[in-house]
Amino acid sequence: MSVNPWTDRARGDVGLKGVRTRFRAYQIGEAGSSYSYWADGHFTLIEARRTQEYSYKTLTHELALCNKDTIDTLHITSWDVDHCNPGDLEWILDNLKPRKIEFPGYEPHTESARTSLKLINDYRWKKKTIRPISTIQVTPSYIESLGKAKNLGYQDLFYHPKKIYENNSNNNSTVKVFRTGAFNVASLGDVEHSNIGAYLRSCRIFRSEVDVLVLPHHGAPSEITTKKFLEEVRPSIAICTSNYDNQYNHPCDEIRSILHELNIPIFTTKTGDVIVESIRSHTTQYRLTNLISNSQKVSSDYEFTAKKAKLLNQNADTISNRYHPGFKGLR
Known about the structure:
This protein has helices spanning about 55-65, 85-95, 110-130, 140-145, 195-200, 205-210, 225-235, 255-260, 305-310, 315-325; strands at about 20-25, 35-40, 40-45, 75, 100-105, 135-140, 155-160, 175-180, 185, 210-215, 235-240, 265-270, 275-280, 285-290, 300-305. By secondary structure, the chain is of the alpha/beta class. α3 (about 110-130) links the parallel β5 (about 100-105) and β6.
């Protein structure tokens, strides 16, 4: 698969600004993933999952902290039931009323996936007369239609699916970097093919700006999460979703070992929710807090500096030379 290092896609302006930002990885008490990203008043729920005992309470608490009672965007990376459960999706649509839904671009391959797509379509038409609902099927043609990133602005970027892999739902997961806030979060779904990893490593913004990396496929062994990939992307934090029993041993020992060798801290939802929030001026620093299971009590916390803060403080010529020597002007 050929790769193009200048396919980071977005629009926006270079400039450092303060944006209150929160990311949360939810402990859902069973196999699966659930996250949220709130920046500049916009709340995105990542994955259509919710569990009554665990994440219902913490998601409700998070929305209240962000002064929200509904969500702006529901972003689903995969039709697999651990990412999109029809029962959970129905509750989210009925109660959280997203104004935008981003859903997988590959055809549903299971009964639960087909049910989920029908729920989305029914919701779109039901709400159409009440308020406009935007739905985006993230297909290769949609990715191709996006403009190339011209700078290091505050716009989300879609990277994959660049192609549809036959009979492999994992590699058809949506890859997106949430970067509208003070720090950036990379969501990779379940992708695992080495070509996808090589492509992501070739994309300059992805390689230089990711602060929080949600490990693909819940931290299971894959051709993406290699030492070379982690060494080049070098996120400040790695996040892994795993339930309390952690029957799949996520993340695997090999990935844990690589992260330890590269001094990249790993946090899992096995012991409780993981919260990352901007602090002070909401431009440079952010704090990670690991909560005690099924509570709001703090287990530990750490502070980090956002990667793009340093880049955005540089002038345009410096950034241009850093990203594309000999070429004046970012793409």
